[in-house]
Structures are given as structure tokens and as C-alpha cells.
Amino acid sequence: QIWIEGNIASGKTTCLEYFSKTSDIEVLTEPVSKWRNVQGCNPLGLMYQDPSRWGLTLQTYVQLTMLDRHVLPMSTPVRMMERSIYSAKYIFAENLYKSGKMPEVDFAVLSEWFEWIIKNIAIPVDLIVYLQTSPQTCYERLKQRCRDEEKVIPLEYLESIHNLYEDWLIHHKSFEVPAPVLVIPADHDLKKMLHQYEENREKILMAHC
Ligand SMILES: Nc1ncnc2c1ncn2[C@@H]1O[C@H](COP(=O)(O)OP(=O)(O)O)[C@@H](O)[C@H]1O
Ligand SMILES: O=c1ccn([C@H]2C[C@H](O)[C@@H](COP(=O)(O)O)O2)c(=O)[nH]1
């Protein structure tokens, strides 16, 4: 199992789309559509409007929907999955808490849930592919993608997410990393990115062997 990790709009979905054309690979994208519509409500939009009030609501739902993805039985030898329950906690929940936007009690409850899950439920991973971008690149791609809920995201938000990813996956300064990390520089244009995916294809697809 391979997780594709990276900042918002770093190119994860585009990377997965590319590999989805390969036979014997199952690709699981993030369930963003669920985060934008759970029984008619939009926790992603609410979180960006008022993170202190809705951060826990969103992150609880992200945690549930990512767990649901992780425990799906595999239908092919290789599964590539966009992000993970780990980055939901170590990057996004952490960012809300550290920036003072998630109350301590909310963070404590979310953390206990998370710890219980990773202790009691097997979440296998063989390789983490980290698409390493500059926050500025993500900011430009984010504006180009133009998702309604994300129009309020400032560059500083992407910088915080970037720093948390770097501390976790590059500097090993924050949390345990559950698998080896393959870093792919991802500021390049699409043509160069596809070339790099080809160059790394073997390393990625043989990770489970
Ligand atoms: N290498 C690239 N160069 C320029 N634009 C890109 C590149 N990769 C992706 N994009 C565009 O940037 C936006 C975000 O990409 P996406 O794959 O959705 O990122 P993520 O899934 O990480 O949020 C999309 O509009 C996509 O078409
Ligand atoms: O735990 C999480 C995971 C994701 N989000 C947000 C960040 C973005 O606005 C979307 C996901 O978009 P990507 O383009 O796939 O990065 O969801 C969050 O708030 N918490």
C-alpha cells in the first residue's frame, strides 16, 4: 500500500490519475466530495469559514472517512491512496490546534480517538510518496483549481501545512513516520512530473515486495 502525501493542490490527484491507467493498481482518492456534502451539510466549507467552531467536526469526519478507506479490502496487488488518517491528524488537526483554532478539549478528544484507532486497527503502509512543493506553487495551483470552499485560504495557511509536512516526513522532528518516504520534487510542469513518475515507477510499484 502506497500513500501519496503532499500539501493542498500539490498534484496528488493528478499523480493518482496517471497511475490509475496502469493495470493491477487500485487508486483511492481522498473522499473530498463527502467532506463537502454529508447529509446536505458541508463541513469543509464550515471549517474554512469558522475553524474554531467546525474544525473538530471536519477532522472527526475526515478521520472516519479515511479509516473507511484504509480498511477496504484490496482488490489488486497494489493500492495507491491519497493521503491517510495519519496526515489528517499529524498535519491538519495539528495545524488547527497549533494555530490556536482548535480548542484544547477538541484536540484531546480527537487525539484519543486517533490513538485508539491506530492501536486497535491495522493500517498497513509500505511506502509514503511525498510530493514536495513550495507553498507558492500550491497557492497558484489552488487558485487555478478554484474550489469554492478554498477561496479563503491564504498563502500563510499553505506555509504552515508545508512546514508540518517537512517536519514529519523530511526532518523527522515531529511524529513517527510509519513507512519509508520517497520524495518527489513537484514544483515542475506536468510534462516533467509525468517523466519523474515514470522514473520512479518501479520503486513505487515494487514497494510492497
Ligand atoms: N505539475 C503541474 N503543473 C501545473 N499544474 C498542475 C500540475 N499538477 C497539477 N496541476 C493542477 O493543479 C491543480 C491541483 O492539482 P491536484 O492534482 O488536484 O492537486 P491535489 O490533489 O494535491 O490537491 C489542478 O488544477 C491541476 O490540474
Ligand atoms: O485532514 C484534512 C485533510 C484535508 N483537508 C482539506 C484540505 C483541502 O482543502 C481539502 C483536500 O484537498 P487536497 O486538494 O486533496 O489537498 O481538504 C482538511 O482540512 N483536513
Compact description:
The chain is of the alpha/beta class and 209 residues long. The protein has helices spanning 12-19, 32-36, 43-49, 51-70, 85-98, 104-120, 135-145, 155-170, 190-205; strands at residues 2-6, 25-28, 78-82, 127-132, 181-185.
SSE layout and pairing:
Elements: E1 2-6, H1 12-19, E2 25-28, H2 32-36, H3 43-49, H4 51-70, E3 78-82, H5 85-98, H6 104-120, E4 127-132, H7 135-145, H8 155-170, E5 181-185, H9 190-205
Parallel strand pairs: 1-3, 1-4, 2-3, 4-5
Helix pairs in contact: 3-4, 4-5, 4-6, 5-6, 5-8, 7-8
The chain binds adenosine-5'-diphosphate and the ligand O=c1ccn([C@H]2C[C@H](O)[C@@H](COP(=O)(O)O)O2)c(=O)[nH]1.
Adenosine-5'-diphosphate binds next to helix 1, helix 7 and helix 9.
Overview of the molecule:
The chain has 209 residues and is of the alpha/beta class. The chain has one domain: Rossmann fold (3-Layer(aba) Sandwich). Helix content is 55%, strand content 12%. It contains 9 helices and 5 strands; from the N terminus they run E-H-E-H-H-H-E-H-H-E-H-H-E-H. It has a 5-stranded parallel beta sheet, sandwiched between helices. Helix 4 packs antiparallel against helix 5. The protein is globular and about 45 Å long. The model has no long low-confidence stretch (mean pLDDT 97). Its EC number is 2.7.1.21, 2.7.1.74. It is found in: Mitochondrion. One of its GO terms (molecular function) is thymidine kinase activity.
